[in-house]
Amino acid sequence: MGVIAVIKGNAKVDRRTKNLVKRLKAGDIAVIYHRDLDEVSAEALVKARVKAVINADRSISGRYPNEGPKILVENGIKLFDGVGEEVFCKIKDGDQLVIDEEEIICNDVPIGKGTILDMEKIENLMEESYKNLDRELDRFIENTLEYAKKEKEFFIKKVKFPKPVINLSKRHVLVVVRGKDFKEDLNALHAYIDEMRPVLIGVDGGGDALLENGYIPDIIVGDMDSVSDKCLKSCKQIIVHAYPDGRAPGLQRVRELGLEADVVPMPGTSEDIALLMAYEMGADLIVALGTHSNMIDFLEKGRKGMASTFLVRLKVGSKLVDAKGVNKLYRSGVKTSYILGIALSALLPITVIFLMSPPMQQFLNIIRLRLKLILGI
Fold first, then answer.
1. Which residues, at least 6 apart from 317, have a Cβ–Cβ distance to it below 8 Å?
2. Which positions fall inside the SteA-like C-terminal domain (predicted)?
3. Run of H or E residues at 98
4. Contact 307/147 with Cβ under 8 angstroms?
5. Which of 237, 303, 318, 329 is nearest to 274 (CA)?
6. 8-40 residue pLDDT tens
7. Least packed by Cβ within 10 Å: which of 46, 79, 93, 170?
């Protein structure tokens, strides 16, 4: 493996990676507690340009093949894995960290060690994870069916939603979630958004994704844990996702900002609420961007089953279009050869018409006569 250079930097600590990335600055060392580091979190850490990541938990537990650690290492970020609860609790925001080989030194005091995950170790762990995938999927299906039996009443009956401040009936509705490839997919949908003017619903941080692309979200739906104050203040309506018993922790934050919000108590995820609301309010078409759509997405969510998502998609399926991966349709761009081909095709009839015109015929005759005189023909 070779000698690992000494890494120095300021610590930023949080048990929730999605909260931590908001506070990170270039050159920081991120200290997380994140089992099975997912792609979206890893990409956010890369974007923050951290020097290294110290994970108190296992970045790849072996339950399923998660790509997060690979993304970090491919981008030159050192990952120190499994340092444990004790080491995690000793590090505070702003502490000076030094990582020498696998030893972690905090404010000049050695506090523990972590395992360096290089690409070889990651590939070995991923190979083992693929072997466990069948068993994990069986467990996931059993849990999903169990939850589906408990939650079906919420989705079979018509759910009562607060009246939207903007009419969704017979409109296109774009639901944006900060999921895999959400940035690239949103960029690829600019033409669609500008032409069709869909109602824009941001699910928590999905609202900020819209703002970053120059669009103001019409509605924000979520538990308010990953959306910015700026986004909440700019949207037309806020819908707080509450537990089925009515508890809504996110409501306090909205009120502290001096804003009003509607509350929807429901099981499942906030994206489920957004999709179901669009359907119940008569949307003509629902475009889902960044939402959970495949097996790994569901396993990364971390719930014991995603029954609500399964049930919601069954209900709204006739109106739902998933935009995941749409950017890959346009990745190759327009080739220069295509442009030249189109240009030549357009010029050919123009050239023929030009050459057949009387003035041009006279000009060509003059040229022909001059050539004959010069050549003595």
1. none
2. 324-374
3. strand 96-100
4. yes
5. 237
6. 999 999 998 988 998 999 999 999 999 999 888
7. 170
Residue with tokens 């069948």: 134
Digit-coded pLDDT (tens) for 329-356: 554 444 555 545 545 555 555 555 555 5
C-beta atoms surrounding 169 within 10 Å: 9
Give CA–CA dist 221/205, Å, rounded.
10
CATH of 7-125, one of 3.20.19.10, 3.10.290.10, 3.40.50.2300, 1.20.950.20: 3.20.19.10
Residue tagged 């050695």 (tokens): 110
Specify whether the CB–CB gap between 229 and 220 falls below 8 A.
no
Q: Evaluate the CA torsion angle 289, 320, 67, 204 in order and state its sign.
A: positive
Which band of pLDDT confidence, cut at 50, 70 and 90, is reported for residue 283?
A: very high
Neighbour order of strands in the sheet with 172-176: 262-265, 237-242, 219-222, 199-203, 172-176, 285-289, 320-322
The one-character DSSP state at 242 is E
Give 265-305 as a DSSP string: E-SS-HHHHHHHHHHHTT-SEEEEES---SHHHHHHH-SS-
Structure token pair of residue 316: 């709204």
Length of the chain: 377
Quote the strand ranges of 27-74, DSSP E. Answer: 29-32, 52-55
HSE-up of residue 215 (Cα within 13 Å, Cβ side): 26
pLDDT tens readout for residues 43-95: 999 999 999 999 999 999 988 888 899 999 999 999 999 999 999 999 999 99
Domain boundaries, the chain: 7-125, 158-329, 336-375
Q: Which two tokens stand for residue 232?
A: 């909440």
Take residue 126 and report the two structure tokens written for it.
Answer: 């991923």
